[in-house]
Amino acid sequence: MPAFALARRLRAGETVYGAWCMIGSPVVAETIAREGFAAVVLDAQHGLWDVSALIAGTSAVNHARAAPAVRVPHKDFALVSRALDFGAEAIIAPMINDSEDARQFAAAAKYPPLGERSWGPLRAMPLQDRSAPVDYLREANDGTVTFAMVETTTALANVDAIAATPGIDALFVGPYDLATALSSGTAQDVQARQVEQAVDRICAAANKANKIPGIYCRDAESAVAMAKRGFRFIIAGNDLTSLRAAAAAQLAVLKG
């Protein structure tokens, strides 16, 4: 697989569909990747991934010819750099509420002069087929993708400033937190009018700043719909809900 394949595809203007893994199993992530998803996100915020599993999971996804991505916990910017060193090609950072949050995220993810990422990609280099440090260093800032999650009312108010922050490559909609915030904690209706308007606003802000618009969707049908609305990095469900749906379908047949 070409080095930094996800960034290359997104920067070329392609629409990329990815999978999302909560369970914390490198084998599950690899199995999903082998079905043909271009990227697999390992969710270390709400999922069951610890550091050892992330190390194994990024390698497993890479060897399955997909791009590994990691969602880090809230403001865990130290893990941003570590996950990139493990071999992640993209980082999704939650609760980026303003340009200062975005600046700190970019600083951890990008090498100087764009950021302050410390040197040490010992696992990332072989996964990207780079043996000379200077080759990885020259390509890493463009080759790794930073997704700033917009999922609060504060972030929505600051979306243009977040998108304009140097080192931020993309915006990523967290629809369920956004729906919770916009309803003052009373609902998670991602199809509510105000949520739909916010989703379109975030997509427009990304495009205005020449950044990549991304979004999490609960299923493939929703993902296709979001592609038609202009999103280019789109998640189509997660491993836990897919597993439950498959098990339920089998039981329905068994029970007649």
Give a quick summary of the entry.
The protein is an alpha/beta fold. The protein has 13 helices and 8 strands. Helix 3 links the parallel strand 2 and strand 3 (67-71).
What do these coordinates show?
- With 256 residues, this protein is of the alpha/beta class.
- It has one domain: Phosphoenolpyruvate-binding domains (TIM Barrel, Alpha-Beta Barrel), CATH 3.20.20.
- The chain has helices spanning 5-11, 26-34, 51-63, 77-86, 99-109, 124-127, 133-143, 153-157, 159-164, 175-182, 193-208, 220-228, 239-254; strands at 16-21, 39-43, 67-71, 90-93, 145-150, 170-173, 212-217, 233-238.
- Helix 10 packs across helix 11 (193-208).
- The longest helix has 16 residues, at 193-208.
CATH architecture: Alpha-Beta Barrel
Instruction: Name the structural class.
Output: alpha/beta
Cα distance, first to last residue? 44 Å
- Biggest sheet descriptor: 8 strands, parallel, barrel
Number of helices in the DSSP assignment? 13
User: So what's the CATH class?
Assistant: Alpha Beta
Helicity, in percent?
40-55%
Mean pLDDT, rounded to whole units? 97
How many structural domains in the coordinates? 1
User: What form results from the Cα inertia axes?
Assistant: globular
Uncertain parts? none
Strand content: 15-25%
